[in-house]
Each structure stands twice: as structure tokens, then as C-alpha cells.
Amino acid sequence: MQTIITLEELRAARALLPGPAGFVPTMGYLHAGHISLVERARAECASVVASIFVNPAQFGPNEDLAKYPRDLPRDLSLLEAAGVDLVWTPTPEVMYPPGFQTWVTVEGLTAPLEGAQRPGHFRGVTTVVAKLFNAVAPQKAYFGQKDAQQAAVIRRMTRDLDFPIEIVVCPTVREADGLAMSSRNTYLNPQERKAATVLFRALSAAKAAHEQGEREADVLRRIMAETITAEPLARLQYVSCADYDTLEELETVTGKSLLSMAVFVGKTRLIDNFVIG
Ligand code: PAF
Predict the structure, then answer these.
(1) Candidate from 27, 95, 273 with most ligand 1 atoms within 8 A of CB, to mutate
(2) Is residue 178 part of a domain?
(3) Quick one: 14 and 139 in the same domain?
């Protein structure tokens, strides 16, 4: 496995890889969810490229950029064990050289949910992912369903900007008790870690109600909200029952829909979602 920092070396090494190339972009501090993306890429592609870059542009001023967990040596050994050919670890100066002033923005899809709570977040995500796509030029790129809106936004950007890349979205990987894997789970103390299963419990309750015939989105949102509110260490930011493609809030669940939420457990902000219908 080769580890590369500069764009020039990345381009030179990438040119020597056999196609199709699969790409797994990450912010590091890897867990089983990331490794499942690498394994899928390994199974489907002749070569696999990963990137590790904690992208300052997608963090708000009061968010966790400074304390975002990092462990490069551990990440590199996990990627090597999973069969990655090339890892790109650009510095902020490589990605955003002095004078940088060009941004990629997806409109409607970024307005609700995470976009409403985290102004500028998706502009940072789409800008860095567009730059990563240009540099790595993969045939396929792999993202987790855990960040459902991010996946929808990147799919839209890929189509709108004509990137010749297939976007593959892989299932959320969960701990045994249902908590979705996330690098941010490391912020949780033992009590908060137990309380954090409330997201999975709330989503499961709404899904069960849907399976029993409930079609009113307000009822499903209320079931989720009440489950969260009953957990003393949790504070609900939003719950949503939205159309899977447009992310618009629903009145009635008729087709494929996204149940999603953001919840603070202590000071840690967690998100999770289920697809129903
Ligand atoms: O999902 C992530 O880890 C990041 O948002 C991504 C896609 C690597 C862009 O920085």
C-alpha cells in the first residue's frame, strides 16, 4: 500500500493503477463501517484508493474540528489489512492552497435536515468530494447510508456535474446494541454510550408502527420524538419522515421514505436513519 500526500504524486501513482478503480473517501479514525466500504470496493474493483482528510470546510465555527479524533498509524494499518492500494492523505494546504475561492454548491437537497442545522456543511462536503473525484478519477465511489442526506447530495452533484463515477451507497454498520458506527461515538462516556441506543430504539419503534400499517408521517415523527424525549441524557434536534428522493417532509407515507434524526447525547451530536416503504 502506498501513502501519498501531494496531488502530483497522487496523480502519478493513480495513473499506474489498473481499472476499474474504487474510491473510499474518509475523514479517518476508521471503524467497521469504513472497512465495509473498502471491502465492497475491493470486491467490485481492480484497484482501491482511499483518502483520509479531516475537511475543515465542512465544520461550522462551533463544531468539533479541533477535537475530531485522529489516529493515522492505526488508520493506515486497517486500510492496508483491508487491501487498499493507495491512500491519499492531503494536508489542508494541499486541498485549499492560498487564494482558494471556488465552491461547489448543491441547492434544494441541502436545504432541510442536516443542511438546516449545519449551515455551510454540505458546501464543504461537495467542494471537497468534487476535488477528490477530480484528483482520484475513480470509476466507482463508496459512501455509507448512515449519512443519508450526504449520499443523496453527492449523487445529485455527480449527475449534475457529469462526473463519470458510479456512486455506491452501503448499509449502515451497527454495534451489537444497534448504535450506528461513527467516529464521533468515541466522545461518549459510558453512561452516554448506553443512552445513545435511543436513536436506534426510536427508529425501530417508528418502523414497527409503519409495518403495522401506520401511514401518517406525523404519527411516525411523534413516536420517534417521544422515544428520544423519554431518555434523560438525550436532547432531540430534529426528527423527520421525508420522501427518500426529494427529502421533503411527508404527510402520508406511500413509497420509499427516510426516517431520520439528529440527537445530542450529552454534548455529542449523533445522527441516524432508516429507510422504509
Ligand atoms: O463522510 C465523510 O467522512 C465526509 O463527509 C467525506 C465524504 C469524506 C467528505 O469529507
Answers:
(1) 27
(2) no
(3) yes
Taking the C-alpha atoms of residue 23 and residue 32, their distance in angstroms, rounded to an integer, is 17
Write the CB contacts of 183 (distance below 8 Å, at least 6 apart in sequence): 27, 28, 29, 30, 31, 68, 69
**In terms of domains, do 130 and 29 share one?**
yes
Cell of 33: 463501517
What is the CB < 6 Å shell around ligand 1?
Answer: 25-27, 55, 58, 125, 128-129, 147, 150
Counting from 1 in the atom list of ligand 1, the atom nearest the Cα of 51 is 8
Condensed to tens digits (0 to 9), the pLDDT of residues 13-22 reads: 999 999 999 9
CB-based contact 161:130 (threshold 8 Å)? yes
DSSP 101: -
pTM of the model: 0.98
Quick one: pLDDT at residue 163? 99
Closest atom of ligand 1 to CA, residue 154: 7
Domain match, 159 and 192 both = no
Does residue 34 carry a catalytic annotation? Answer: yes
Pairing between β-strand 257-265 and β-strand 268-276 as defined by DSSP bridges: antiparallel
pLDDT for 161 equals: 98
| Domain residue limits at 19 | 2-170
